[in-house]
Design goal:
Chain lengths: 668, 625
């Protein structure tokens, strides 16, 4: 029985892009959990917005340590990576800026009211079941009001417990180690408390000294070496502990209650930019991120669904710079967030749904400068969101959605943003669909934008993004292969962009709503699994993005019409995986991935002095998974940046050369 | 399935073709652009700051005689500088035959010759601005060498010959511009790090004692400081950008004599007029330095985005627009009649301008050396074996991992190809062996000039700073290109002196390295040596130091010694190969030589200044020059 379940699990996960959204995943788990029915997930692609998904075994087999690493395999995404395990990693979807991206942890948005950015390098893949990226918004109109507010959405879903009859406890553990003194143990336990109630706990520790070698080399035009030096990155160490626990109560076939607590502590060095005569910087950063979130969802009369979310988050940051050469800094930041959401969906007819949701959030930031005796600075913000959405279908052919969101943040005048989604499926028998959407969304100024000493500007307006997108998606699955193809074109326009602008003299900057960016892009994706003889499976995943993101603020600017910083014209990735399954269900495999980011510029002006070369890395991993009685064992070896390319994602922040990681894991 | 697979592959290949590959990182190019037909004298350096962390400080240069503007001039002159010029350029000045640039976030002062070829650097944390007097440079720095809770800044004194920090004095908060008047150094204390609690003083430092003697209260947030023809100091106080307005405060004999209420982002005084940038209204204002009245200024800069750098010279006024600070700026040249003469596109944040008399050009393909013509300058250092001394491990600087070979390369950086730097031979017996890219012929008269840093005492040619070194020469008899042949001494004026001891041997041990004086708290023993001791041999000249007017000076020797007479005394620093003698003192006639060795021939330790040590700053083949 157990073995069968495993096989099922894995093959299910392997069918990438099948069970695509959270709701479906939920129902699948439920079926496993309760009925243990063999599911053939050969359903049609029902999503009006087809997400990019990485999950289960496929996710675990990637050469990726954090969520940020995994997101590199999505199209339309640009990752900003300052290098090393501890370096900040943020993503930018379709060039609209990282603050237009919302990240959700088990359905609830992760916030950072201070700077609006979520460091995705801090989220480990070890406890992750699925990562999804939706352009625009999630397919399902049954969502919290705030979810309608972002331009791009990343949903992180952690692993959930599955118990078979007679099973009460599952234990898992993992040990990962690798280059630059990486040590990363992880343990967890799942306990079935009652028939419907289960508890999961997971803990992880990460250490790395961050001392990776990097090389700077330049040549003269005649080929002679101008300089060539290799140094070791300093002050890039990290110590982090993550502990989380969840209580899940799937108390009926329609309702569940979940509560999740998360805590993350870290201490790290901030290695800083490598510039002439400076090979080491002295900044240190301590973090503690704590949140507790609860979710309750149920359905009545088969027509009315309700979802209630509540969250409390408490994030502490301590930043110190005792570099003797610089302005000493010793600051403490404490952010707290209270969030509540109430969402309802009514099925008026089989083909017509309505939803209404209201969200409220309270943010507070306390800032303390420990070097001087000053009063704690205190900033707070009340936000309200009210959304109304509708979805209807015309037989099998057309699916449409429309939503409006009203956002009221503090004293800003309430703003209304619409979104319209449309999907057309010309041949019911063929899984081919044409999807399009238009969406407006605001990015509100962060506390830093508004109140940062000398820089803040309390009269800022929110930044507006308008997205237009059209997509053609095709999928075919047979006994021999499973193929999905996807191409989209998009046109985005970001206006009132919030940028730092010098105010008068002496390098005093202020934030202004000054900037317009016009973005045109094409994403193309092809995923295929080919079931070869002798239980071999070949999996490929190809992504390619072409983007122009042009600054059209003012024709008098020297950079008018230039590509905005750090947006490559071309980027893409290739993943090739070969998996072999033995008769008894063991897996052996090889995974190769290639990531390419094309030429780009590091400043607004596209001159030769700001030119940044393309970078690309080849990563390889081999793995073996064994199922022995109730034990599941795994060994994985990764070789990253195989050819040892010396590259930078952000200028003057060198990335590691070749590095290895080795993972041993068990589950019982 | 088959056809679909082909599509897949085609798709993959198709997208491949769009990709370009990564190549070698080529050095940043230098681009020359003709911007004007107007002919002026000399040239102008434009130091573009670049944004913090971007490492994009850029030194541009315009040849005013032919109107060619070179972006990244420094890059062309120094393509091999690791990570280029650095992060955030903050000041550029010419002093004597050198050009100095403060690179703020690279924590260094870059020292160059007048064509901006790298000579050396001085590490100073968070350095801001420079002033000069005599053979000293003064550099303001936002932080002192010892950090303190008051966040007081420092001024460092640097010896311009050795590029070594000699003294440091603590001043007010975040010192910016500074200048020397008579024997006093004035420094603006801006307090820029204090956030709304700016400083408001100018520190006065006595240069003899190098102590702060006074703090003059001027106005809030003083950043710029200039002197007019009446020796009055103009201090630009920026105010607090809130309720305290900016103003110019004029000082005379340390007293405030005038306050002019005006925004004053930058200032440049030419003749009897002070030109001031009013950044609030984007206006260039002109004030009389005689009666402080505001004059009509013909130059209009209202359309500038952010006027920033300013330099008023006798024939033209140069002013820059830094635009939005994160893209390239513009350099404007105006006539005083208000006519715009020309403009040039600069790097990011063109902030600092320096007019020089030399007009230079870079021709394409400067990287290829013409092998048919020999360089008149010393080109190669073969051996560098200083005796223990206070400048050993400093000139050149020893860094972890250096060996004898890399120390030689560092010597070359300092003294080869007319670089103009200095190396120290340490105590008695310490030597350096060098050569040229050709053999030096023994012709009529003097053949080689060897440069040091000797100087005469004021009003005397008999006494001064003389640290004599003896010259040995050698011909590459075995033709292996290495200095392992017979050495001959060039006989100097004290060769036959009865007090000169020949064939002296002295052993230096790591254990004996205890001589450190308070200015040089570092090991004196050459740190790159593996051995615990080493032996040096040679002649020892009699002591030459005497006390005159409470000053320690040396007798200047007649002829035949390195670092004995000032470099501008060409004959006094030149040598004739015909002076060569063998080890028995017999004259030897050499037709040409390939190697030259200089060793320190004196063994004297003076309490205040440390041991006498021969310094070398280059050598010239007189037949080619």
């Amino acid at each position: 029985m157990i073995k069968r379940l495993f096989i099922l699990c894995i093959s299910l996960c392997a069918c990438s892009a099948f069970a695509t959204n959270e709701a479906e995943l939920d129902s699948l788990f439920r079926q496993f959990n309760v009925e243990e029915v063999e599911v053939t997930a050969r359903a049609l692609n029902k999503d009006i917005i087809i997400p990019q998904t990485l999950k289960g075994a496929e996710l675990q087999r990637l050469n990726a340590l954090s969520v940020a690493d995994a997101l590199r395999y999505f199209s339309g995404v640009q990752l900003k990576d300052y290098g090393g395990v501890g370096g900040i990693k943020t993503i930018n979807i379709r060039s609209m800026g990282s603050q237009h991206t919302a990240v959700y942890y088990n359905g609830v948005q992760l916030g950072n009211a201070q700077n609006g950015q979520v460091d995705l390098g801090r989220f480990s893949l070890d406890n992750m079941e699925q990562i999804q990226l939706f352009n625009g918004q999630k397919s399902d109109i049954f969502q919290s009001a705030r979810e309608f507010g972002a331009a791009g959405n990343v949903y992180l879903t952690t692993r959930r417990p599955y118990f078979k009859e007679g099973e009460r406890v599952h234990v898992h553990g993992q040990l990962r180690f690798g280059s630059f003194a990486l040590a990363n143990p992880n343990v967890g336990v799942d306990i079935k408390l009652t028939e419907t109630l289960s508890l999961t706990m997971d803990a992880e520790y990460v250490y790395s000294n961050g001392k990776y070698p990097f090389r700077y080399r330049r040549v003269l035009p005649n080929g002679e070496t101008a300089y060539d030096t290799t140094a070791v990155r300093q002050n890039g160490d990290i110590n982090a502990v993550r502990v989380e626990a969840g209580l899940h109560d799937y108390y009926s076939s329609t309702g569940f209650f979940r509560i999740h607590a998360y805590n993350y502590w870290s201490e790290r060095g901030v290695p800083g930019a490598i510039v002439n005569n400076v090979w080491r910087n002295g900044e240190r950063l301590w973090d503690r991120n704590t949140f507790v979130q609860a979710e309750w969802k149920d359905e009545w009369f088969n027509r009315w669904s309700t979802r209630v979310l509540a969250k409390w988050a408490n994030d502490y940051t301590h930043y110190q710079n005792y570099d003797e050469r610089l302005l000493p800094a010793n600051n403490e930041y404490l952010q707290q967030e209270l969030y509540f959401s109430f969402a309802n969906k009514i099925q008026v007819f089989k083909w017509w749904d309505l939803s209404l949701a209201y969200d409220y959030q309270y943010n507070v930031l306390d800032r303390d400068n420990l070097l001087v005796e000053t009063e704690t600075e205190h900033f707070n913000r009340h936000s309200h969101w009210l959304s109304a959405a509708t979805a209807f279908n015309i037989k099998e052919y057309v699916r449409a959605q429309a939503s409006v969101l009203m956002t009221a943040v503090d004293n800003h005048a309430p703003r209304v943003t619409p979104a319209v989604f449309f999907s057309f499926r010309p041949y019911p028998a063929i899984d081919l669909s044409i999807n399009a959407f238009y969406k407006q969304s605001y990015r509100y100024p962060t506390f830093n934008d508004l109140y940062y000493t000398d820089l803040g500007n309390a009269s800022l307006r929110p930044e507006l993004a308008r997205q237009h997108s059209i997509e053609v998606a095709y999928r075919k699955a047979t006994e021999q292969f499973d193929l999905s193809l996807n191409a989209s074109y998009y046109y985005n326009r970001v206006t009132d962009k919030i940028i730092a602008y010098p105010k008068g003299q002496q390098f005093r900057w202020t934030m202004l709503n000054l900037g317009t960016v016009k973005i045109n892009g094409v994403d193309a994706k092809a995923d295929a699994s080919i079931y070869l003889p002798l239980r071999f499976v070949l999996r490929t995943r190809l992504n390619y993005t072409y983007q122009t993101a042009i600054d059209v603020t003012d024709p008098n600017d020297t950079y008018y019409g230039h590509q905005i910083p750090y947006i490559p014209w071309h980027s893409g990735s290739v993943v090739l995986g070969l998996d072999w399954q033995s008769r008894r269900g063991d897996h052996y495999g090889l995974n190769y991935s290639f990531i390419y980011v094309g030429q780009r510029y590091c400043q607004q002006e596209n001159t030769i002095y700001n030119y940044v070369q393309p970078w690309y890395t080849h990563d390889l991993s081999v793995y073996a998974e064994w199922a022995i009685n109730r034990w599941w064992l795994k060994a994985n070896f990764e070789l990253n940046n195989m050819l040892g390319q010396d590259y930078e994602v952000i200028q003057n922040y060198p990335m590691p050369k070749q590095n290895v990681r080795c993972t041993l894991a068990f589950r019982y | 399935m088959h056809t679909r697979f082909q599509i897949l592959i085609l798709l993959a290949l198709g997208s491949w073709l769009l990709f370009s590959c990564r190549g070698d990182e080529i050095v940043y190019p230098t681009i020359g652009t003709h911007v004007t037909d107007e002919v002026r004298e000399g040239g102008l350096y434009v130091l573009c700051e670049g944004n913090m962390g971007s490492n994009k400080a850029r030194l541009d240069y315009i040849n005013l005689e032919n109107g060619t503007y070179y972006s990244n001039w420094y890059g062309a002159q120094n393509p091999k500088q690791l990570k280029e010029l650095g992060d955030v350029g903050n000041d550029i000045q010419q002093y004597g035959h050198h050009l100095y640039a403060v690179i703020n976030c690279s924590h260094k002062v870059e020292v160059m010759d007048l064509q901006a070829r790298h000579i050396g650097k001085i590490d100073i944390p968070n350095c801001r601005y420079m002033a000069f007097k005599g053979n000293k440079m003064y550099v303001s720095a936002y932080v002192g060498s010892i950090s303190n809770p008051d966040l007081l800044g420092s001024v460092y004194e640097v010896d311009t010959a050795t590029l070594i920090v000699t003294r440091e004095v603590k001043v007010g908060h975040q010192p910016d511009e500074l200048l020397v008047m008579d024997n006093q150094l004035y420094v603006c204390n801006s307090g820029g790090y204090l956030m709304n609690r700016y400083d408001s003083t100018v520190s006065v430092i006595d240069l003899s004692s190098f102590t702060q003697t006074q703090q003059i209260v001027v106005g809030l947030n003083p950043t710029r400081l200039r002197m007019d023809e009446q020796k009055r100091l103009w201090v630009c106080c920026q105010g607090n950008y809130n309720d305290v307005d900016p103003e110019i405060v004029v000082l005379q004999t340390n007293q405030v004599i005038k306050r002019i209420s005006t925004p004053c982002a930058n200032i440049s005084i030419q003749g009897a007029t002070a030109y001031v940038i009013d950044g609030d209204e984007n206006k260039l204002r002109a004030f009389s330095t005689i009666d402080f009245s505001e004059q009509t200024c013909q130059i209009h800069i209202e359309r500038f985005e952010h006027p920033y750098g300013l330099l008023a010279t006798s024939d033209a006024l140069f002013i820059t627009d830094a635009k939005n600070y994160v893209s390239s700026g513009i350099l404007y040249c105006y006539g005083y009649d208000g006519h715009l003469r020309w403009t040039a596109k600069t790097g990011d944040i063109p902030g600092h301008l320096c007019r020089v008399t030399g007009a230079y050009d870079i021709y394409e393909d400067t990287t290829h050396q013409d092998t048919t013509t020999y360089s008149p300058y010393l080109s190669r250092v073969y051996e560098y074996m200083p005796a223990m001394g206070q400048f050993v491990n400093e000139l050149p600087k020893y860094e972890e991992g250096d060996d004898a070979e890399s120390m030689c390369r560092k010597c070359e950086v300092s003294i080869a190809n007319n670089a103009g730097g200095v190396i120290s031979l340490g105590g008695w017996g310490g030597y350096v062996t060098f050569g040229f890219d050709h053999a030096i012929e023994n012709k009529e008269g003097r053949d080689i000039q060897i440069l040091g840093n000797a100087f005469y005492m004021t009003g005397s040619t008999e006494y001064g700073s003389s640290e004599p070194g003896i010259v040995l020469v050698s011909h590459d008899e075995n033709g292996d290109g290495l200095p392992n042949d017979t050495w001959y001494e060039l006989k100097g004026s004290l060769y036959d002196d009865p007090n000169t001891r020949h064939n002296v041997i002295k052993t230096y041990t790591r254990e004996g390295d205890t001589l450190q004086n308070p200015f040089h708290k570092h090991p004196y023993y050459p740190q790159w040596l593996q051995a615990e001791e080493y032996m040096l041999t040679g002649a020892l000249l009699p002591p030459q130091t005497v006390t005159i007017n409470n000053q320690y000076v040396q007798r200047i020797l007649d002829y035949g010694y390195v670092d004995n007479k000032p470099n501008n005394d060409k004959e006094g620093t030149s040598f004739d190969i015909s002076w060569a003698v063998d080890k028995n003192g017999n004259h030897v006639e050499l037709t040409q030589i390939d190697f030259i060795r200089v060793y320190n021939a004196v063994d004297e330790n003076i309490e205040q200044t440390g041991e006498l040590s021969t310094e070398i700053s280059g050598a010239i083949d007189l037949h080619l020059k």
